[in-house]
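Quick start: read one record
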Amino acid sequence: MRVRVLLVDDDRAILQTLSAILQMEDAEVITADCARSAIEQLSGENFDLVITDMRMETPNAGIDVVQAAAVLEPRPLIMILTAFPIPDADARGAGASSVMLKSSDPFTTVKQLRNVVRAAAVAKKPPASAPSVEPGVQQKSPR
């Protein structure tokens, strides 16, 4: 199952680079370049994962995206992407699942994105159910 990702960042180069990395992980990526646009996307579509920059049109624009995503059903995994460290407690209090620092190390970035896409894929899978039995058919017990 492909993971649907909403990727939000006001820096076009970062948006394109992260989008390419996510697509290499077989994710379907929708991008937004500001919080307002991201919130509009969230109101009209379902996503398995939302990755948002923190500082865009305002210093806390990413929190607006997080809060909009956190009330959705089904609730996507939500990651804040930032160059400015914020306390995990603040991010989690707003509704984020995790925080990723923008890194100059491409290997670290790829690894973190791969892990979050895998986590979203696992969360997306429906729980395994017991095999169904046709009405009137009795199951034989194993011997």
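Confidence is low (pLDDT under 50) at residues 130-143.
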